[in-house]
Amino acid sequence: MSTAVDTSAAVPLPAEGNGTPLKKRLRRAERRRNLLFGALILPLALVVLVAFIWPIGSLLTIGVDNPEIHDNLPRTLAALEDWDGRAPPAEAAFRALADELAAAKGSPAIAAIAKRLNREDAGYRSLVMKTARKLPLDPAVPAREALLAIDAQWGELATWQAIHRAGGALTPFYLLAAIDRTIDADGNIVAAPADERIYVDVLLRTFWMSLVVTVCCLVLGFPVAYLMANLSTRHSNMLMVFVLLPFWTSVLVRVAAWIVLLQNEGLVNRLLMWLGLTDSPLQLLFNRFGVYVAMVHILLPFMVLPLYSVMKGISPVYVRAALSLGCPPFRSFWKIYFPQTLPGIGAGGLLVFIMCMGYYITPALLGGPKEQMLSYFIAFYTNQTINWGMAAALSAVLLAATLLLYMVYARYLGPTRVKYMKAR
User: Fold this and answer.
1) Is there a contact between 39 and 129 (Cβ–Cβ < 8 Å)?
2) What PANTHER family does this protein map onto (predicted)?
3) Domains of the chain (ranges plus CATH)?
4) Which of 25, 128, 173, 317, by CA, is between 20 and 30 Å from 55?
5) How does pLDDT run across 291-328, given as a tens digit for each residue?
6) Which residues is 308 bridged to in the sheet?
7) What is the pTM of this model?
């Protein structure tokens, strides 16, 4: 009775003339291919790092950076390290503060200290500058007594609590202020005072205006994209030229053109009065209507192009099959054609919505105070008050909203939607 012997394990893999096994050669070829791919994408990765990731990282860092008190009053903060906050600090803290304010007198550091403390509570700037003008103190006089003689506010717990709160190298102060929150004397996160709560309303206004513009672009752009996708190539290309025409002029020129058209003596009001629709000019500028009109005009191509690219790839066979089986035209369109356009609707809507949230020029020129979006306040803190921390915090809120929208898009309308549907 013969016994079968497995000799497969003893058969060696083919080798080159130098005896290198095939498995090792495959690994080597795979490694060379990966290095080639890495070399090809390295320039793009460097561009993304330098032009995208690094600026965003720097922006987020500025939003939590807090160097003014931490770098300029280190001895004072060291004296307050074990302070319980229930009674005025010891004499060492008063002396350290007086010495460090005297050292910073006449330099940009004293202005930075005053400005940072003033953000904790209005009035601290004048307190710091008033005190600095009367420094240095007489060494023979206790620092506590001398500072109280300059201003009794140095004896209040709130003053020292503000210094202690503002002394960290990092702070959530700006990020909390960007969502109308603040930190009270006990270290709890609470709502900001009623007269300071504006940013949540501005953020909601930004979302609402962006949503209205996106819906208007979808309503106007969907028929245009559908018509382009179903016309002959010659007529479709001609219509594409008209869609792309706004790209050939700058945003500022287009906004200026709408100012000419929508003003009280502009062409739109003259046409309405000539047709007898109105007896007097309508207020079409410096309100939300003018902002909507200009933004829809500027952003409409960004909705049409994604829709057209998706619709062009939809085969008409499915709709024809439904019609041949007796399905009504509208129902065939709604049940068969429209679901296939959802990726284009999602991509176009996301693109228009995100661009809308960051718009600054159009609301600033065509809108009034109630039409200004979050980007207006970012520009205000960047260019006028030079409050980089607040500008960075508001930008971080806008970035977080953008990422959240992208996650929603990827979850329900993006390329991964099939994976989620299968997982269900």
Assistant:
1) no
2) ABC TRANSPORTER PERMEASE PROTEIN, INNER MEMBRANE ABC TRANSPORTER PERMEASE PROTEIN YDCU-RELATED-RELATED
3) 67-168 (no CATH), 199-423 (1.10.3720.10)
4) 173
5) 999 999 999 999 999 999 999 988 888 888 888 888 88
6) none
7) 0.78
